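Aim 2, interim progress: modelling of the 2'-O-acetyl adenosine-5-diphosphoribose-bound target.
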Amino acid sequence: METSAFPAELIRRLQEAHHIVALTGAGISAESGIPTFREAQTGLWARYDPQTLASPEALARNPGLVWSWYAWRRSLVRQAAPNAGHRALAAMERLVPRFTLVTQNVDGLHQQAGSRTVIELHGNIMRTVCAAQRHVVTQWAPVPEGEAPTCPYCGSVLRPDVVFFGENLPPQALEAALQAAQTADVMLVIGTSGVVYPAAALPGLAKEHGAWVVEINPQPTPLSDLADTTLRAPAGEALPALVAAAWPRQNT
Ligand code: OAD
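Predicted structure of the complex, ligand included:
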């Protein structure tokens, strides 16, 4: 992406910002090979709707199916490496007085890229907890294909430590994200379809409190209208170019 593609006002806002907040969604990890949730799925799991599988009801009805789906997603995460978009955000954190990264992703790729202040709104897929008591479990007895393992402490079914549809977000993470949004000078909204709340409310909250909102997404979303700038490009292209344009003398 050409650095001249960016409006001068956006570059000035970035350079003068005391606090930049980035809100990321599945789109930033798409270029690392992790499928998004709402775009057409291909392959093995194409016929399952992620929104149906990632629910307490699905876990109760068919724990083996939910476990297998997450085992597949975990295998993708294990093979994945951060991409240029993740790395650009980690670089940006070192260039501004204050930077907060709020992510809906559960893949840990921001931390792997070197980001330090990361708020995980939807949990982390690599941690395992039990459904009944939230015991954190690191080892379990193997089970046949199509079944879910159980908790060594209480016997309830195991699940990844992610937020399912219909479940509350971790309260501390949500509170920290709300605080960050209210004190942001610039909010970058990257690779999210903007339909899952409360995360999707953060850009509006930031704007109400005076932030300049920038959307980075190849596709329009319900958040596009409130954005002050929209960059219709993949995050892996737009973010490194944006960092280079705003901080040209830094060796990132
Ligand atoms: P979605 O799958 O809903 O949306 C992904 C967005 O990324 C879309 O708007 C795409 O246009 C955009 N996109 C695709 N490739 C991109 C790229 N290379 N660069 C930038 N953007 C790109 O994912 P989320 O908005 O993250 O929650 O979904 C929100 C939540 O719904 C997820 O955290 C998950 C899901 O169910 C839970 O599991 C609780």
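The beta strands are 19-24, 98-103, 118-120, 123-130, 158-162, 186-190, 212-216, 229-231. The chain has two domains: 1-33+82-122+168-252, 35-79+125-162.
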